[in-house]
Amino acid sequence: MKIAVVGADGQLGSDLVAAFTAHGDVVCALTHSHIEIADLNFVSRVLEEIQPQVIINTAAMHHVEKCEREPAKAFAVNALGSNNLAVVAQSLGAVLMHVSTDYVFDGSKGSPYTENDSPRPLNAYGITKLAGEHFVRSNTEKHFVVRTSGLYGKSPCRAKGGLNFIELMLKLAKERGEVRVVDSEVVSPTSTAELAEQLVQLSSSDCYGLYHATAEGNCSWYEFAKEIFAQSDIPVRLKVAGPDEFPTKVPRPKYSVLENQALKDRGLNTFKPWQNGLHTYLAGRIKSESLQVSA
Fold first, then answer.
1. pLDDT of the chain along its 295 residues, tens only?
2. CA atoms lying within 13 Å on the CB side of residue 10
3. Which of 101, 180, 200, 222 is the most buried (most CB within 10 A)?
């Protein structure tokens, strides 16, 4: 198939390009310099020339604080941009895979959210991403809306200063010898490489609709950090941060665990426990460092 990956230079996008290429697909990697999703004419011109069979949208305004400061811009990208892709996908007869977020929920449930739970976002980022979901589901028939959570990958995450949580923990441990992490927020840490493989699997089906797609199990950020240091065999003083030690300017869900119910119901779930994904990531990191040293 011919696949157009929008946001191809991002943390998830780069792994999607690699996964679909390895699958034997023809991949058109589209970055912000190639396509401006907030401009319908731009989107139409680019995608009509490519004629993809599948469009995957990972592009978004991810920076939560910036979305809160600039809600109109966030809506233009996260909501109207998604609508533009949906409209063009429908006109081309293409499948649209749209990546969304756990931030559409408020985190008050206290047990894993399924696709049947009603969203209630707490901030502009979540609101605009939910609006994008609605546009996609309303304006194109062949769609996959995929919510995920706690992503980390080998490519830099620009919205988080270039460092994912794992790299930040390893950096702080090396520089300080002591790391303090909050224990009050619960997530399912998910490898972008694993998510990319799941989307390859999903693209081969015609079971369109809404999906949750995260690694199995969950942990607090503190527990995630503890496992990172244990698997890396790094001696560090890890402590629980106080409730007001890292104040946030924008309300965020305290419980962001998603249940892959729809994937499991259709026999499509490929995810393993989050500890497995971490192990694979760290092993790849060691291999990459070894290759750099030998070179």
1. 899 999 998 899 999 999 999 999 999 999 888 899 999 999 999 999 999 999 999 999 988 999 999 999 999 999 999 999 999 999 999 999 999 999 999 999 989 999 999 999 999 999 999 999 999 999 999 999 999 999 998 877 666 667 889 999 999 988 888 899 988 899 999 999 999 999 999 999 999 999 999 999 999 999 999 999 999 888 889 988 876 767 678 889 999 999 999 999 999 999 999 999 999 999 887 666 554 444 4
2. 25
3. 101
Report residue 89 as tokens: 């996908």
Q: Give 201's DSSP letter.
A: H
Report all structural domains of the chain as residue ranges with CATH numbers, in order of start.
Answer: 2-156+190-216+251-294 (3.40.50.720)
Long-range contacts of 22-29 (CB under 8 A, 24+ apart): 23/200, 25/1, 26/1, 26/2, 27/3, 28/2, 28/3, 28/4, 28/52, 29/5
pTM score above 0.90? yes
Q: Is the CB of residue 250 less than 8 Å from the CB of residue 203?
A: no
Query: Which one of the listed residues 125, 211, 222, 281 is annotated catalytic?
Result: 125
Cα separations (Å) of 137 from 87, 96, 125, 143, 266? 11, 10, 19, 7, 19
Active site (annotated) includes residue 125: yes
CA distance 206 to 95: 9
SS3 call for 7: coil
DSSP symbol at 233: T
